[in-house]
Every structure is written in C-alpha cells, then in structure tokens.
Amino acid sequence: MIPVLLAAIAACLPLTSAHIALWHPSMYGFNVTEQTFPYDNRPVVPLQDMTFQEWWFHNHLDYPPNPGDVFELPAGKPATAELACNKGATSYFASSEGGDIRNGNDPCPGSPPAEYHTTGIDDVKGCALAIAYEPDVRKIKPEDFVVFSVNQTCVWNRFTDFHVPARMPACPEGGCHCAWFWIHSPDSGSEQIYMNGFKCEVTGATSNVPLAKPKVARRCGADPEHGKPDPVPGNCTYGAKQPLYWLQKEGNNEFEDYYAPPFYNDLYNFRDGAQDDIFEDSYPDGIPDPSPSQTVVPTPVNAAAVAPVVTSPPSSSSSSPSHSSSSGSTRSASGPRPSARGFRRSTETPPRVRLPKKPFTQSRKLR
Questions:
Q1: Which residues touch 261 (CB under 8 Å, ≥6 apart)?
Q2: What percent of the chain has pLDDT over 70?
C-alpha cells in the first residue's frame, strides 16, 4: 500500500527541468559541478536575470580547458557537437559524477521532452554557434561574437551537426573562441538563455576574407502568434549577426517581451545551416538600413548559398546526426531508464500543459 501511495504522490509532483549544455573538453567549466560555486552553476543551468559576470561565459572563465583541448571547425563541412542534460549522457561520461547513462542519440536519457523545454519536434526553436577571432578570452566582448552556424531542430538530438561556412578563415595564432547559444520555446518551462563557451579552431581554411562586424538581429519573420502572419524581409538584419543576449540584468541586445522570446531561426533571419553571408565582401553593393517599411532586400555575392526567409517549420532532417542513433547505447530501450538527473523516471510521456500566452508588449518588441 505504501509503495502505491508514494507512486501516486510522485506522479503529482511537477517535473524539474534538466536543461541542456554543449559538452566538449574544450569548454570552459567542463568539470564544474553543483558544488564548485556557492550556487548551482553547472554548464546545463540556464541563465536569467543575472549580472554580466554571472551570465557571460556562464561565469566559467576561471575554469578554462586544458591546453590542447580544442573543438575543430572544418571549413565547408559539419562539426558535430554533443548536446545533453548531463555529461554522463555524452562520450565524455568518464568524468561525470553519475557515470555512463548514454542512450544513443537521446540528449536526456530517461526523460520526456519537457525536461529540455519542448513539447515535441515541432516546438524546437533552434540553437547557434558563434565565433570570436580572439585567442585571449578576457578581451572578448559580446559584440565580438558572430553567429556562423545554426541548427533549427536543436535541441532534439544529442549528436547535433553545425555546418561551417566554406569561406571561414583560419584562426590567429593561439586559436579562436566559440560559444553555443540556445533559447527555447515559451510553451514548456520558464524563459532563459543558454551559453557555453569553448576553445575552437577552423581547419582546412581556404579563404582569408575576414568576418564582417556583426549587427544586432531583428525580428522580421512570420510571427502569427503575435499578429504578424507574414514575414517582413525589409526589417531583417542581413550579413553578420550577434548572438541573442536577452533577459539579463545587464548586457542585453534584445529586449523582447518575456512571452515573445527571440529565436535562432527564420524569425530573426537565422537560416538553417551555415551562415554564408557573414564576410566583409558578402554584400558588395551594401546593406540598406532595415525597417518595417524597407522594400529593398540586399543580395549577397554568394546568393546561391543563402536561402530566403521561409515561414514553414524546419524538417527534422536538418539535425540528422553524423553518428548512428544506436552508437554508444548502454541501456535497454524498454522499461524505465536512468535519467540525466540521476534518478529513474518512466519513459511514458505525461500530458503537456501549454502555458497561457501573455498579451504581447509591442513597445518592447522591435527597434
């Protein structure tokens, strides 16, 4: 009787979001645990209402990677990253506190999609990789990062491909710094941003054309939930764009309403895949000032590689992993499995509750 009662009580408890991080030995804070800081500052912990020091590089600058640990970015090819709710769900489980809980391509083994803030594949909003051509991490400023790759079906898969532009120039001596960014749908959990910084190196470079100075991305895609069924291409930011810094006490470059978060997808003209128009010579004819009334849409020199803003949701194939979905699986696919938070949870997905939409605050939406 007691076990039945305990099970009934547990079923009524709300789920605790497990969150997501990009895991690689090249990252800052790779071995940070729940006990490292006076507060929980593990790489998977979301960032909201924080000071600049707290959210910038996740406040992990004092926990750098070991010399030689670098994430490689092959020019013109995909770079495969591992996204997971716990290091134990990745290839780097050996240094995880909970051991090996991998289950193929599942980013959060044993947990439903609500654990990583989505109601399903149609509710994912994309994530991005950005780069700064600066070997000294202490010199990097938010406006130095340029988004160079987007995966619009992130964070659905553990193995996530980020396509690198073919014209990416080589890094300076000492290497580059990169960061992974993600903002999830408002339909599943409280709003935050995610950032994990890491050392990176462009390999196989064939171009020496520098990246252009990035600008702040603007909301310009179809936004039917807020009364804008059609995209406004003239209001888009074209060319190199900064990451979306949002919802912090300081350092924001986006000021959207809490229930209208910015995303790394067509809504902000972040097309799926390599961002091929981010170079100094991408727009030889210049870029007109964006505005809702702007009718001129610039054409990049590599027009064939740059897709227009679309309104349809991305196909799940855009994040097809480079690894087999069964690779590294050490758990049975049937029955309860260890979750990425270290406790057991049924694999049955509970019903989702869609959060009510707050009226959109127009004054905070567009610049």
A1: 125, 183, 184, 186, 191, 246, 247
A2: 74
* Cα distance between residue 260 and residue 223, in whole Å: 10
Contact 285, 298 (CB under 8 A): yes
Token pair in block for residue 348 = 């049955």
Residues 235-262, mean pLDDT to the nearest whole number: 97
Q: At 299, list the tokens.
A: 């054409």
Closest CA to 113 of 126, 104, 123: 123
CA distance 132 to 39: 29
- Residue 265's nearest CA partner among 123, 167, 133, 131 is 123
User: How far, in Å, CA of 139 to CA of 176, rounded?
Assistant: 12
Report the predicted TM-score, pTM, of the whole model to 2 decimal places.
0.79
| Sign of torsion over alpha carbons 276, 280, 283, 284 | negative
Tokens of 139: 């010199």
At a CB cut-off of 8 Å and minimum separation 6, what does 159 contact? 80, 81, 82, 105, 321, 322, 323
β-strands 194-203, 71-74: how paired?
Answer: parallel
Compute, in degrees rounded to 10, the torsion defined by CA atoms 197, 201, 202, 204.
-150
